[in-house]
Design a protein that fits this description.
- This protein is an alpha+beta fold and 379 residues long.
- It starts with 12 loop residues before the first helix and ends with a helix.
- Strands 1-4-5-8 form a four-stranded mixed β-sheet, with helices on one face. It has a four-stranded antiparallel β-sheet with strand order 2-3-7-6, with no helix packed on it.
- The chain has 13 helices and eight strands.
- It folds into three domains: 115 residues, Acyl-CoA dehydrogenase/oxidase, N-terminal domain (Butyryl-Coa Dehydrogenase, subunit A, domain 1, Orthogonal Bundle); 108 residues, Butyryl-CoA Dehydrogenase, subunit A, domain 2 (Beta Barrel); 134 residues, Butyryl-CoA Dehydrogenase, subunit A, domain 3, CATH 1.20.140.10.
- The structure holds flavin-adenine dinucleotide.
- Flavin-adenine dinucleotide binds next to strand 1 and helix 13.
- The site of flavin-adenine dinucleotide has 19 residues, from strand 1 and helix 13.
Amino acid sequence: MPIPRIDPCEPDEGCERLRLEVREFLAEALAGYPAAARAHHWSVADPEFSRRLGERGWIGMTWPARYGGHERSQLERYVVIEELLAAGAPVAAHWTADRQSGPQLIRFAPETLAPKIVPGIVRGETYFCIGLSESDTGSDLASVRTRATRSGDGWVLDGAKLWTTGAHRAHYMIALARTGPPDGSRHAGLSQFLVDLKAPGVKIRPIRNQADEDDFNEVSFERVELPAECLVGREGEGWTQATTELAFERSGPERYLSGIRLLLEMLDAAPAGDARAQVALGRLVAHYATLRQMSLGVAGVLARGEDPSLAAAIVKDLGATLEQSLPDVAHELFGGAMPAGSTLEQVADYVTRAAPSFSLRGGTREILRGIVARGLGLR
Ligand SMILES: Cc1cc2nc3c(=O)[nH]c(=O)nc-3n(C[C@H](O)[C@H](O)[C@H](O)COP(=O)(O)OP(=O)(O)OC[C@H]3O[C@@H](n4cnc5c(N)ncnc54)[C@H](O)[C@@H]3O)c2cc1C
């Protein structure tokens, strides 16, 4: 893998005008939305909010017009999602579809399929979930046991996916399944399918996470019939396609803006002139500023049409490490001084419980560091 250039990259004036437009929209759309709720933006789905974003043209921003997309730049998209995340907007409904399922369909789905589904994503009305992990198969995706077998013109799907975020509210999943033997390479014989989650034989069981949210699920398939056109991409190419999808998942500013609400609350609550707080919070802000530059650089890599995998792995790993340090800083600075029931206490409680997942979802720390080592030619 060639080492990518992560050049400094700043949104231009047009992007900054767009930023103001988004801020103005959010000030109105989220007026009165409680600060503590903004910490949960990941898991809060608000179909009306997603629909309004779609109306503004802020979903599917970079996609071709023939799918309803808006053909805007990667940096314009970056600015919009950065503002949504910084404001703690309830983005969970459309997020996965906008970030990775739409691009997957546009790139790999048959021309008969993508035009039927993608415009609904752009309108903020069609939601997706990611069907990669299974029980005993998270990091080692090549060992998936969900199987699709040919049946007439189509396929029949059997198996189960685990930790599937948002499956309970999604309309579709893109699922990785085994369609053939691993012939020579463990990565061979895998394919991706579009699965309608309302199809007979699909069952969705919620799993409560340690932050007390029902956000991920187990999704089982029992003889689920899939029409031929639901094969996304080419049979046997699932591994390459799934790794492309993971690069989209790892490349956005969400990988360092998951716990930002806690930093904002600490900045608000820190007593003026407190030297300890100034040093600790100043250090965090400096790290955030650096990560933002790196993350913008990844948007630049995408804009140049280059492979963002290595750069995205670096930003995601550094971002997770930084955000996982936030609860400790909050504890050291405020500890017993957090008034019971205050916004700071509620946000610190939530981020403390959610933060361990930051270095698991979308690829664990060890897996990302393996990608970085390979990219540097060390393995
Ligand atoms: C909040 C959250 C949301 C998620 N949402 C989704 C989703 O929507 N869809 C989906 O498909 N999955 C989802 N996942 C699953 C996530 O992708 C997996 O948890 C992750 O890939 C790790 O897989 P695993 O849990 O099987 O752990 P394992 O792969 O068993 O890993 C266990 C430990 O071993 C280490 N390890 C594993 N292999 C190696 C290796 N080769 N070298 C060094 N160390 C290694 C790992 O780093 C980890 O520390 C989600 C997870 C979380 C926490």
